[in-house]
Amino acid sequence: GKKPLRQRVLDELKHYYSGFHLLWIDTKVAARMVWRLLHGQVLTRRERRRLLRTCADLFRLVPFLVFVIVPFMEFLLPVFLKLFPEMLPSTFETESKKEEKQRKKLNAKLELAKFLRETIAEMAKRNKADTG
């Protein structure tokens, strides 16, 4: 069934709190990584990806904060999220959105693998016809 309005509002507030908290933690870790970079250390591939993701999240936070600060503009947030689905920082994504993204990536990879398999099979047939 559908949750009461009060519970949905509390769930959204908890979601935003945890999103800002995770973004704060990521920002602190990214600041340490930048400090290490400035002092000549090399980042691992994983650290580099995390640093890039955190920087992108901070840039995405600017338009998102407009919705939070301006009164009653949060009602337009779902419209803008439909138009610009990558507008929210990654720490604000729900599990269902993450699973949907993973599903889309997996389907794209499967289609690419299918295409490559068919291409290799076709090349094998041509080579067999040429040599036979």
TrEMBL record:
**Looking at the record's lineage, which domain of life comes first?**
Eukaryota
Membrane topology (UniProt): Single-pass membrane protein
Q: Name one GO molecular function term.
A: ribosome binding
For biological process, the GO terms are: intracellular monoatomic cation homeostasis
Provide the Letm1 RBD domain boundaries.
Answer: 43-128
What keywords would UniProt list here?
A: Membrane, Mitochondrion, Mitochondrion inner membrane, Transmembrane, Transmembrane helix
Q: Which Pfam families match?
A: LETM1_RBD
For this UniProt entry, what's an example GO CC term? mitochondrial inner membrane
Q: Could you identify this protein by its name?
A: LETM1 protein
Species name: Piprites chloris
